[in-house]
Design a protein that fits this description.
With 118 residues, the protein is an alpha/beta fold. The protein has one helix and six strands; from the N terminus they run H-E-E-E-E-E-E. It has a five-stranded mixed β-barrel with strand order 1-2-3-6-5. Strand 5 and strand 6 form a beta hairpin. The relative contact order is 0.16.
Length: 118
């Protein structure tokens, strides 16, 4: 009697674990161009990404950034899961590097040096 009870309890526990683990969402991957990054003081709140004709909004709570933090007009890849309302939850944001501009000083001695604005 005791063995049967433990077998039934084990089977019930195993069944419960199997049923509850089936509803986990898989992470999806999307690439696009950053349209807008919303900030609150020094905290990134959400990101609007354009992919072709569509745009998506991602929540940036507990996100990991690869290759730095993105700015508008950067190309990024986002791993995400569906979230509440129209906002998806981003897990990993990878920023794709832009091509650099090379300045050779010997060829440009007479030109004014252009620097970033303050």
């Amino acid at each position: 009697m005791r063995k049967t009870f433990f077998y039934m309890l084990g089977f019930a526990l195993l069944s419960f674990i199997c049923i509850t683990s089936c509803n986990k969402q898989e992470a999806k991957k999307i690439s696009g161009i950053v349209k807008k990054v919303s900030m609150d003081d020094d905290t990134l709140k959400d990101l609007t990404l354009i992919t072709g004709q569509d745009s998506m909004v991602f929540s940036l709570d507990n996100v990991r950034f690869n290759n730095g933090v993105m700015l508008p007009e950067d190309s990024v890849t986002v791993y995400y899961a569906e979230g509440k309302n129209d906002t998806a939850r981003a897990f990993i944001v990878t920023v794709h590097p832009k091509a650099s501009v090379i300045v050779i000083p010997e060829n440009n001695k007479n030109k004014k040096l252009i620097t970033a604005p303050n």
